[in-house]
Structures are given as structure tokens and as C-alpha cells.
TrEMBL record:
PANTHER family for the chain: PYRUVATE DECARBOXYLASE, PYRUVATE DECARBOXYLASE 2
GO MF terms, alphabetically ordered: carboxy-lyase activity; magnesium ion binding; thiamine pyrophosphate binding
Protein name according to UniProt: Thiamine pyrophosphate enzyme central domain-containing protein
Ranges where the Thiamine pyrophosphate enzyme central domain occurs: 19-77
Keywords: Magnesium, Metal-binding, Thiamine pyrophosphate
Keyword Oxidoreductase: no
Required cofactor(s): thiamine diphosphate
Length: 80
């Protein structure tokens, strides 16, 4: 059995990436967050909803993530 070394994140790199992503998204007319099945795998459901709440972008889900965001959520638009 091979043990994988736990990797730590580069905090400065993460902050820079978030800043660039936010600049790009905030320039768009109608940005949309698309939730896919990897959210379940990564156990990032709460983080995704927090992101949706914080940024105010519309939320679209694929079928495998149906129920991740409630249909009455203020940013929810559709499940495909």
C-alpha cells in the first residue's frame, strides 16, 4: 500500500487565483454557477451553497445534483 503525502495549499497562489476568477466573473453580464456531480464527491455541498449566497450569481444544477440547492433558493434557475 502506497501512502500519499498530504499536500498543503499555496495560500498566496490560491488568493491570486480567487482574485483573478472574481474579476473575470464580475465583468460578465449574467454569470451562472453550474453545479455538477463532483460537488457531492468533494463533499463541497455547503461550500457551493455558501458561494451562491455570497456572490449572487444564478445557480443551475445538473440532474445528479438535484436537491443540492432548494428550488426556492433565490438564485436557483433550473435543473438540467
Amino acid at each position: 500500500m502506497i501512502l500519499q503525502e498530504k499536500r498543503s495549499s499555496n495560500l498566496m497562489g490560491l488568493e491570486a487565483a480567487v482574485e483573478v476568477a472574481a474579476e473575470l466573473l464580475n465583468k460578465e453580464i449574467k454569470p451562472v454557477l453550474v453545479g455538477g456531480q463532483k460537488i457531492w464527491v468533494a463533499k463541497a455541498c455547503d461550500d457551493f451553497v455558501e458561494l451562491a449566497d455570497g456572490c449572487g450569481y444564478a445557480v443551475l444544477l445538473i440532474r445528479s445534483t438535484k436537491g443540492l440547492v432548494l428550488k426556492n433558493h433565490s438564485h436557483f434557475i433550473k435543473t438540467y
